[in-house]
Amino acid sequence: MKIFQQGLRLQARRRGFHIITHEVEHALPQLAEIRMGICQVFIQHTSASLCINENADPTVRQDFEMYFNKAVPENDPDYIHDYEGSDDMPAHLKAAMLGCSITIPIRNGRLALGTWQGIYLCEHRNHGGQRSIMITAWGE
């Protein structure tokens, strides 16, 4: 059994859904040493999230942003947690809906994503800043 772990600091991105698959793969070159295993990617924040979805057509990511903005609107007068800005509480809710980690099989030294799948950084703040991710891979 081999176990590898690496932190990754992502550059600040604008609000939206961003493909980070290559950054994750590049951060952990030891993936190549695992024939069969699991990779967990975990974001260390409460106002951004991770998910896996369409990696080819950018309109999918635009539609994700549109949907979540409709589902979790800003400036809701019922929010109590509002002192960090109008995008903060909605960002926490969106992050809770999508989650803070993803798990991907490793096969023959590569992430076994489907043909049209990519890892998304889901940035829910207008000015979220840099984001920290922890990548852990294990297997044989």
What attributes characterize this protein structure?
8 strands, 3-stranded antiparallel β-sheet, alpha+beta, 3 helices, 140 residues, 5-stranded antiparallel β-sheet, Jelly Rolls, elongated
The CATH topology annotation reads as Jelly Rolls
The CATH superfamily is known as YjbQ-like
Kindly provide the name of the CATH class: Mainly Beta
| Rg estimate, integer Å | 16 Å
Strand order of the largest sheet: 1-8-3-5-6
Round the mean pLDDT to the nearest integer and report it.
97
- Which runs of at least 5 residues are low in confidence (pLDDT < 50)? none
- Beta content comes to 35-45%
Note down, in words, how this protein is organized:
It is a single chain. This protein has helices spanning 21-27, 58-71, 88-98, and strands at residues 2-10, 16-19, 36-43, 48-54, 101-107, 110-111, 117-123, 131-139. The model has no long low-confidence stretch (mean pLDDT 97). It has a single domain (2-73, 84-139), classed as YjbQ-like (Jelly Rolls), CATH 2.60.120.460. The chain is built from three helices and eight strands; from the N terminus they run E-E-H-E-E-H-H-E-E-E-E. It is elongated, with a radius of gyration of 16 Å. Strand 5 (101-107) and strand 6 form a beta hairpin. With 140 residues, the protein is of the alpha+beta class.
